[in-house]
Amino acid sequence: MLETPAPELVRHLNSTKAAPAPAMDMADLMVAYLEQLGIDHVFGIPGGAIEPLYNALARSERRGAIRHILARHEAGAAFMADGYARETGKLGVCIATSGPGATNLITAVATAYDNNIPMLVITGQPALPSFGKHPLQESACTGINVLGMFHHCTRYNSLVSHSKQMEAKLIAALQRATRTPRGPVHLTVPVDVFRQPSATLEPSYDLATLLRPSSLVDDDAVETLRELLASSRSVVLLMGGQCGEAIHSILQFATLKGATFVTTPDGKGLVSPQHPLYRGVFGFGGHVSAEAALREPSVDLILAIGASMGEWNTGGWSDSLLNERLVHIDESEDHLARTPMARFHMRGNIRAIFDRLVERIHEVRIGASVTLEQRRASRELASLKFDAGSILAAPEAFGSEASPIKPQRLMGDLSRLFPPTTRYLADTGNSVAWATHYLQPQDRRMGERRLGGGERKRVPGQRLTTGGWLRVTMNFAPMGWAIGGAVGTAAANRGSPVVCITGDGSMLMNGQEISVAVAERLCVVFVVLNDRSLGMVKHGQRLAHAEAIGCELPATDFAMLGRALGAEAHTIRSPADMDALDIAAICGRAGPTLLDVHIDPDEVPPMNARMRVLAAGL
What we know:
Structural class: alpha/beta
Shape: globular
Number of helices: 27
Number of strands: 18
């Protein structure tokens, strides 16, 4: 007969058994998939309807995985997710509760949609049984229908109405967000669905396999493009903002072909302003030299690459670009549809296309004897230098000692004073016009190979990100985008300073997000162009001889505002004030700095392309 164990022994044996795995609910499952993607920061504002997801994020943070960053406004959260995505190349994630939390996201989500930024937008809903009963902040089809609102600015948009839908809809959303055309996707989840237990203890799918990008290229199209290039006398390249991952191959192709290139405003940050083949920015805030390069009579082929072809990056649909000389290369059918006049359209992975072209040029050169003339041309190309200052509209203002400081001089100082690793974000309005035209940081390398061919030489400050050294927003262009975007950029990369160039109007609209940079100890330098007005509106009204209305702002001490939010702050009225700054200390500080820069309010930004469109009523 077996003896019964003593009660103490039973308790000991029970205590040494392996603890059961913690139960996973649907919110935990969603977070597990985000962890699988390597996402380390998400941005949002909590609320009752989204509480289970925040509980799962708290558990993730304790595991050392995902950190949540609390925004001050939901639009700021989505702008931060935008900045994070541009810096890391990963998915940006923003979160809001139901009702007004969700509707506050819409402007920023629409911006990501129009700029092809991959983003997962998660919103909450009241419990399913309460739908139609007018619960607090209901935003289902029986309330304020946010699903209907997001339909027009997302690539995928769905209500998860049952726990068994979660994985399938999440995977579908992630695929749409990260495949061309990229953009935001939206899932709205009732609070009781989030709380339902998961049938599995871990994700069922391997996202690395499911979301692997395609590199398919149409070989026949590549051959057609090669024939066009072979029969052309002179080629100019227009590089758009979607060239990031392919920029090294495109620059190598330009070098091998001896082709000059221009960029769109959103493509400027992908290249060095001192590159010998660079001829400036074409489009909003651009350079006369860029338009001249496109209008050059000897040019018989223009390759537009990774450009969305909207108003700002076509010079207001200029006929210097949109004509029969154009070849449009892009991954997006939407972009290609905007150039029906082009001689040839080529859709495919841009990096793969230009890798093929570069390889083919090398094959031809290896198989052919190189003439003395070709050797001489190669040496001349390698020795070329480009004076970046020669393309400026007002080079004398670039070095002006006047007070208040000229905005042109300010851009020169920002280019000169900050280190090579700096990321610049330029906000909508005067800020983007001045930055696009005059910002010219030195020694920028973004995937360039050496002019003579072969692999590129790594240099200090070389960018590994596809976002480039300057980030702007095209098309939808809301004020204040850069403020949140700079916070998201700095959170993604704490090793590099971030400079946000913004206006006083944008700062009054979204400046509260400085508080996030304070809380997160992020090195962001907020440069406020203080001219006591909505500058682009004011100058636009003057240039168009319209009524001066709705553009003046009261005098505001933004340095004081920055200090009130916890930032270090300085007031800048002259070039001497800029020179007196300790930039090394500012860039080494664990926290933001605000520069309240009183600029000359009478200096007109380079906005002629915009004025032509307004005058023509296009």
